[in-house]
Structure formats: C-alpha cells, structure tokens
Amino acid sequence: MRKQQSMTQLARLGCVALVATLAACASPDQAPATADVAVSRNAVENAVSAGAAELAPAEITAAREKMVRANQALAARDYKLARELAVQAQADAKLAQSKAVSAKATTASTQLNEDLRVLREEVDRANNQ
Questions:
Q1: How far apart, in whole angstroms, are the C-alpha atoms of residue 123 and residue 19?
Q2: Largest Cα–Cα distance of the chain, in whole Å?
Q3: What is the pLDDT of residues 34-70, one digit of tens each?
C-alpha cells in the first residue's frame, strides 16, 4: 500500500512537473516579440522624425504596414510572426531613415556647391575689374 501511494504521488508530481514545463514553454517568444515590436515602433518614429514621410514614403509606409501586422500578430498571440514582422518593420524604418538623411545631405551638398559656384563667380568678377 505504501509503495502504491508513493507511486501515485510520484505520478502526480510528474504530471505537475510536465504541466509546469508545458506552461513555461507555451509562450517563450512573448517577451522578445513584445520587445521587438517596441523597438520597431521607436525605429518608425525616428524615421518619421528624420523626414522619411516626405523623403522615403514607400519605405516608411512599408514599415508602418508591417508594424500594424506585427501588432495584430501580437494580439493573436502569434509571437513568432509578430517578431518577424517587427524585425522587418525595423529594417524598413532604418532604410527610410537612411534615405531621408541621405536626401537631406544631398540637398545640403547641392546647395553648398551652388553657393561655392556663385562665390567663385564673384571672386572672378572682382579679379577681372
């Protein structure tokens, strides 16, 4: 009888351990997926602040659409998909931000070159008088 009781308790303990293990494994991606979505949201905001909406509209639109889908996947508890979409959104946002910064730098460079051209003309004109 004592042996049977110990076996029953051992079986119960095993079941409890199995249930606890399964519960712990049920959503291991939830925290990383949530963190990735938050990081991606920040990347999209940074890109918009850099002027991506005007200077890289296709890329920022793609990032925003993927963010919406990542949030939907989070709500549906599809953490793997949410994480994948968040990583893609972050990449799109960084590309949009880079394009915006590059466009601004190109504009500034073009303006500087024009200013230098005008200055050279004025110096040449002054030297020829």
A1: 84
A2: 120
A3: 999 999 999 999 999 999 999 999 999 999 999 999 9
Q: What is the rounded CA–CA span in Å between residue 104 and residue 116?
A: 18
DSSP, res 125: H
Domains and CATH numbers, the chain: 30-128 (1.20.1270)
pTM: 0.70
Distance CA 43, CA 100 (A): 13
CA atoms within 13 A on the CB side of 96: 29
List helix spans (H) across 50-78: 52-55, 57-75
| DSSP summary character for residue 77 | T
Fill in the DSSP letter of residue 26: S
For residues 99 and 27, give the distance between their C-alpha atoms in angstroms, rounded to a whole number: 37
What torsion, rounded to 10 degrees, do the Cα atoms 90, 92, 97, 101 define? 140
